[in-house]
């Protein structure tokens, strides 16, 4: 079964390469292939940036929790409020 899958994948890859070769021979085909390659590069770059944003969001969430904990720890104990009578 593994050999059959490998043969199928090999044939599919060969057919894809042949199709790309034929595409480059068509008028404007080279430009189309170039545009596809540029698109792939841009999508890869965008994927890297998105992963970076997710990491930053996680760091910000962690920092927000730390700041909230520090604020709680720093708040002074509340004093009881009593009304004082003015001395005369």
- Radius of gyration in whole Å, from Cα? 33 Å
Low-confidence blocks of residues: none
Given the helix and strand composition, which structural class is it? mainly alpha
Biggest sheet statistics: none
Gross morphology: rod-shaped
Q: Distance between the terminal alpha carbons, to the nearest Å?
A: 103 Å
Number of strands: 0
Number of helices: 2
- Helicity, in percent? over 70%
| Proportion of residues in extended strands | under 5%
Order of helices and strands: HH
Q: Average the pLDDT over all residues and give the rounded result.
A: 83
In short:
The protein has a domain at 14-71. Helix content is 80%, strand content 0%.
Describe it.
The chain is mostly helical. It has a domain at 14-71. 80% of the residues lie in helices and 0% in strands. It is built from two helices and no strands. Helix 1 (2-25) crosses helix 2. The relative contact order is 0.04.
Features:
2 helices; 0% strand; mainly alpha; 88 residues
Blueprint of the fold:
Layout: H1 2-25, H2 29-74
Helix pairs in contact: 1-2
